[in-house]
Task: inverse folding
């Protein structure tokens, strides 16, 4: 059996009892590295904390490994219980559909253990989840590569008053251009887009496209480390949020659509205050 | 401190370790009754199972109680730790924003402990969560009250190829019309909309409105008891799903938009089979 287990958004205590039970009976435990190294502070220290918490070793599986060694993982899962741990929910912002499809094709049983993901935890800011339109991704702009297909999507959402969740780019274990050209893989240091960068890019695209979809006075909500003990949530205009220090990643951003009075009342608790700009924490809702 | 704790979608084992820790230290534990009575099989038996699991009594709080006794709950939370348990995620399909707003206004600290909700757990069918448009609710049609505002929303989603999550009506502890007219509250038995009823209503509205937004050949995915051990997930056309016996509630329905090849591959595992019509289970993904 292949157990795909969501770990939730905070730390080792956000696993469900069902998930922990499954981990405990698995003979091998893989952990998706894409966001986990960050979210769980998985320096070698963090990893050993988690290993002693589970009482067994964890194999960190980066994307390359999942792609290259999927057959090995799946053949282990055919005859024994194997866990694949995923930050958030297994089918949240990043997806593990491919691994599930390959498992099913090989006749390996799969069991999914759900958990919170960014997609539902953003509900904490008070904007109703059923009032969101399509989710967009904001990629890091490069000198000659500035993809802005998110613009039309935000436009469509705002045209009918819907909120937009913007997922911000994460670059982990990206081979450097230089190393690729030399035929030997070396990796760039990891990069996580901040809310400031996202807003700068959004405003740049608006200026270029000129569709008046949003501007620096558009109300947004910024989230950092959502679901963890030190999460920061601040509501304000794009211009205001540009100057807020949200601290360590991961960040995400919601562009508000039309709001109802109850949504406004809740947002009021998160509105930008002078001291936030110096990095003070807003704590949990 | 008021802890608002998501219980996830299955049974008592779907609470997170963080959530269980919080419940254990609370002096009083309320549980939202709106969907919980059903999801957790909380007949008096189920309730006592949960109570012995937590090692303390649980006060079932229906909507009336939450509205009428919010002040009492909050004043308890001002001087001691109080838990308010919610099926799914606290800000999932149903919302507890109002309670949080009142707490904050009274200066009561609130801590939210997230969990899986229908909004992210539907990812298990393989349709990517970022390819969904606005979520719609399908209310029970009555003789002279057939609200169909969901139609335009589905139309907008499908016009740009997005999937639509349809949340199906739940009527728990609704005062009967008869009792209201007599000035003495008596309650209707609980009703949970099935996928068949939802599809019948959807097709009726399409026939009346004639916008060719969808028809009986439109591909959908039906979910029953999502996230629980005996969940059933079946993909097929509206016409096919009309004849599938999904069993006990809760049900929800996804109307697919344009699908990518990987989404199709995953849906293939759930496609309607002859035997499903007789109520056989599809198990977990």
Result:
């Amino acid at each position: 059996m292949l157990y795909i287990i969501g770990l939730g958004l905070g730390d080792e205590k956000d696993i469900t009892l069902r998930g922990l039970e499954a981990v405990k009976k698995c003979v091998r435990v893989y952990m998706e590295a894409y966001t986990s190294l960050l979210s769980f502070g998985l320096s070698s220290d963090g990893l050993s904390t988690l290993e002693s918490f589970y009482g067994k070793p964890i194999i960190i599986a980066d994307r390359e490994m999942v792609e290259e060694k999927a057959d090995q993982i799946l053949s282990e899962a055919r005859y024994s219980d194997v866990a694949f741990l995923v930050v958030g929910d297994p089918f949240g912002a990043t997806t593990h559909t491919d691994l599930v499809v390959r498992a099913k094709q090989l006749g390996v049983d799969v069991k999914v253990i759900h958990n919170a993901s960014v997609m539902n935890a953003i509900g904490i800011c008070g904007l109703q989840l059923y009032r969101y339109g399509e989710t967009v991704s904001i990629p890091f702009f490069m000198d000659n590569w500035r993809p802005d297909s998110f613009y039309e999507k935000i436009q469509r959402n705002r045209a009918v008053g819907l909120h937009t969740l913007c997922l911000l780019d994460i670059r982990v274990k990206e081979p450097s251009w230089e190393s690729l050209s030399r035929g030997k893989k070396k990796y760039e240091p990891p990069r996580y887009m901040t809310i400031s960068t996202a807003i700068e890019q959004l405003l740049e695209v608006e200026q270029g496209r000129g569709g008046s979809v949003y501007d620096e006075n558009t109300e947004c909500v910024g989230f950092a480390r959502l679901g963890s003990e030190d999460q920061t949530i601040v509501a304000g205009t794009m211009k205001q949020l540009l100057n807020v220090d949200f601290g360590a990643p991961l960040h995400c951003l919601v562009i508000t659509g039309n709001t109802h009075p109850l949504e406004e009342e809740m947002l009021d608790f998160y509105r930008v205050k002078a001291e936030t700009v110096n990095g003070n924490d807003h704590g949990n809702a």
